[in-house]
Amino acid sequence: xxxxxxxxxxxxxxxxxxxxxxxxxxxxxxxxxxxxxxxxxxxxxxxxxxxxxxxxxxxxxxxxxxxxxxxxxxxxxxxxxxxxxxxxxxxxxxxxxxxxxxxxxxxxxxxxxxxxxxxxxxxxxxxxxxxxxxxxxxxxxxxxxxxxxxxxxxxxxxxxxxxxxxxxxxxxxxxxxxxxxxxxxxxxxxxxxxxxxxxxxxxxxxxxxxxxxxxxxxxxxxxxxxxxxxxxxxxxxxxxxxxxxxxxxxxxxxxxxxxxxxxxxxxxxxxxxxxxxxxxxxxxxxxxxxxxxxxxxxxxxxxxxxxxxxxxxx
Length: 314
What we know:
CATH topology of the largest domain: Threonyl-tRNA Synthetase, Chain A, domain 2
CATH architecture of the largest domain: 2-Layer Sandwich
CATH class of the largest domain: Alpha Beta
Oligomer: single chain
Number of helices: 9
Order of helices and strands: HEEHEHEEEEHHEEHEEHHEEH
Strand content: 25-35%
Largest sheet: 6 strands, mixed
């Protein structure tokens, strides 16, 4: 309690606690999460007082006398006329009825293992003491040593090594994304080059399993770049479900086609639904077995529209 008030300010008041010889749970009032620095400061101050082996004394006083002596009363606690006052050296004095040690040194060691919110304006610190705290520190050291061996660096350079590896991963991910875009562009141009053409409009209907919606849209972007008049419906079986998109250039929309209607009809075949704008729409469904049929139906819609003198989406 003393350490929290020193680090955070006098507003940090005890709001509940559970104490055993090996573990401490301490609730206190504070409006926000403690920073890593604040947690370390609290832990360091507690351990400093433990190492000083400060004597702990108890006495009984009249309640008013105890308060006037500077003893802190816990918020919400009810006290009788007589109160038990616990003093830790000359820096902490509180009203408390619990069992206490003879000196701070008996705690041995103090290690905070978590800090969390338990209610609005109330935080909780959980800490280990004595041998349990030492076991926790030893476990952390073993983990750090194993991490050092895994990344191939001395313990003192683990952080720098991990940061370096993370930077490498970011670079590789960017390279991978760039390569994927290049592959999609290359594959899309191949597909477009062999696509069916009716009345100077390219009909592109393709199944690209494993692609996600972003990748399907990239295919569509390439088709737009490659042709002035394009009607495309793409489908993919990805992660156990069907993804569909329909892309139309503006000229086809002006003639009466609607990407939302086309993709919605295709989605019904795979047991799903969807929609979107007249120029770009997406859908999905669970029935992968019917994906080829859905794409065939969409192809027939585009063919029928472009082949007839009276355009229609049905």
